[in-house]
Amino acid sequence: MPAALSLCHTRLIHKQQPRLYSSTTLPRCEYRRIFGQTLPFVKSHYFRVRWTAAKVGIVFVLGSVSLSTAYATASHELDEKRLKDILVRGTCPSVNVEVSDFVRRPSVEAALERMVTPSKKPANYFVVVGETGSGKSTMMKAACSKVGGGVIYVDVPEKTRNFGDAFADAIGFKFHTPNNLSDWFYGLVYGPGPPLRKERWELPYEKFKELASWYRSTYGITPVLVIDNSDFLAKDSEKVLEILQRGAKGGIDENLFVAVFVAADGATQTHIESRSAFSRGKLYRVGDLDDSQIKDFLNKRKVDPAIHDQVRDLVGGRVLLLSIVCEELNAGTPFEHVRADRMKDVEKRIGRVVNPHNQYVYESILRAATSKRVFKAVDCEIKKAAVTEEEFLKLELTLEKLVVENVLSKVDAGYSFHSNVERAYCMEN
Questions:
Q1: 399: closest CA among 413, 409, 384, 388?
Q2: What is the β-pairing status of strands 151-155 and 224-228?
Q3: What is the pLDDT of residues 348-407, one digit of tens each?
Q4: What are the residue boundaries of the AAA+ ATPase domain, all occurrences included (predicted)?
Q5: CATH code assigned to 73-285
Q6: Domains 73-285 and 334-428 share a fold
Q7: Is 39 helix (H, G, I), strand (E, B) or coil?
Q8: How far apart are the first and last CA of the chain?
Q9: Is 242:268 a contact under the CB 8 Å cutoff?
């Protein structure tokens, strides 16, 4: 068959085939005629369902946001009111001493009460120091409790990583963590917790300064922030103590608040006094009980008056040591045994420092310590024509170790015996 005839035959066959109705082959007019009646219904139903769902979703989201905003706002306002009420009332811990056993120290009480009483324009922040067991914390708590309003008392925990929680508890501050949508939104608006670049203690500290500004503008006087046991910060978180000290100076410069640091004599006092921020600081030392106060203390604890002088000569006016001795005496222990136990304790502490290699160093320290109330390393005369640098460094090291063992104490840029017990032992041995 010729090629032309074959091509015509093929076209004829295809022309006789019935057409399939598809969107690609139907003419536009036929497509509209066949599907025109069903498509509008499908389209309208589909979009009506989707639009209804969208409206429900929009209403739900807007409602959740509105409720969360209302919750966050109300919670924030309640928190602000609660924090302000706490500052107005003050957070002053109770004194764990019976009134009948409390020994009055009028001069110390008056000085501490002046420090923690909010005033119009304070001139200094304060550093209260005293030997361990001198009663400074007890006296400070008593002063804070007496003054009451406008005083925030923060007790630094031994584990300084918990300082932020202790500070937050003192002012009633809460770290908001998102437990649900409302809490998450509250945190989103007002801050969920400490930012990554800030330490945990900084949030309650900044909040306190904000509250202090409100308190001063409302009442015309500056609140007081007492930080007890600052020794722990000086030992483990020196940078934190330095920031707090700078903040204390700023609080005085801006007439915002008064800070009072309470610490033991020694490293903390040296650290604070060595900073430029101490230009607005003032040091106050809480000493031991005097003779009349010692007698009052022993009488209130029902110690036999016949041994009052012996007890005083043994431990002096150190409140903590007096309490321990009185407890042992009231338990029926003879005074001679009590005294022997105290001496053995001192001997044990000195024995951890003194050995045959530094015995001559200890003897030079002993001569200086027993001849002066406060002495320095240069007062320890080693019995040699010339003292080498190595020997002098050994002397300084021994002094520091004796301070750690509470045999000596740092005071007035020098050293002294920690208490009468250590002095008595060294005088007898």
A1: 409
A2: parallel
A3: 998 888 877 778 778 888 877 777 777 777 677 665 555 567 777 778 888 888 888 888
A4: 122-288
A5: 3.40.50.300
A6: no
A7: helix
A8: 141
A9: no
| 245 vs 194 pLDDT, higher one | 245
Q: Distance between CA atoms of 285 and 131, rounded to whole angstroms?
A: 9
Q: Could you give the CA distance from residue 313 to residue 339 in angstroms, rounded to a whole number? A: 10
What is the predicted pLDDT for the residue at 272?
86
Residues 294-349 pLDDT 10s: 999 999 999 999 999 999 999 999 999 999 999 999 999 999 999 999 999 999 99
Helix (H, G, I), strand (E, B) or coil at 414: strand
Across-strand partners of 285? 129
- Class for the domain spanning 334-428: mainly alpha
Between residues 144 and 374, the one the model is more confident about: 144
Where do the domains of the chain lie? 3-35, 73-285, 334-428
Distance in angstroms (rounded) separating the CA atoms of residues 409 and 356: 23
Which residue matches tokens 């009111």? 81
Task: Specify the 3-state DSSP secondary structure of 71.
Answer: helix
What the block records as the tokens of 334 is: 């003879």
382 vs 365: CA distance, rounded Å:
9
- The residue behind tokens 């003419």 is 27
Give the distance, in angstroms, between the CA of residue 175 and the centroid of all CA atoms in the same chain.
Answer: 14
Whole-model pTM: value is 0.75
pLDDT value of position 174: 84
